[in-house]
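Sample entry (231 residues):
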Amino acid sequence: MFTSLCVLACLLHCSIAYLIPPGSAGFVDKRPGLKLYESTPPPSSSSSSLRPVDPINSTDEKVPKVGGREGSGDEEGELGVIKAFKRAYGALQEGDSFKQAVADGIAAAGGDYEYDVELEKALEISKSKPIVMFMWKSSPACKKAIKYLNIAGINQEKIRYVELDDNWTEGNKIRAVLGRHIGKTSVPMIFFEGKYVGGCDDGLDDNEAPGLVPLAMKGTLHAQLKSIGAF
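Predicted structure, serialized as tokens:
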């Protein structure tokens, strides 16, 4: 009974998350492409080109309908949600964590993809700057991580911010494959020279990938930042 409830909750989560991307607050971001910020933190939502839409009554063909994706009809969108359900259920049956199952399901809703190909692209991005942060614009933890790194005095030319929610389809693929690779789907996902060091307040373990705050508390964060030339 408990497993059935978990599956139902996971599928409902995938369905809702597919229809309403994180941080969207009822808005649709129509900027193309996944933004890879290199020198300055990502802009706040107040300066972005977002506009409110009515996903049910809108006559704009480019506006995604409820249950659909941009550039597709309602029928294809419904198939996407079914894919999300099946993929999430399969992940749970294989023993994956609830969060990983949700991430896999949401990624599958955007269309088929090859795990190895997407992982290779994501890992290449993780090595593209001394510091790479995969993030969501609206995430409090991501905002804190940006703040703490700025307080640490890093050179902004040495960090790349990858907004996973700027391109909903591509960003979810990256989150799903990286989560499966490192064992944690939470954002931010922070990499020092291609090595995962955790998130903001926590990570995988206390030694290899504890997160920014634990590294700072242990007094090793500054030394690591210096060793990768982040100043």
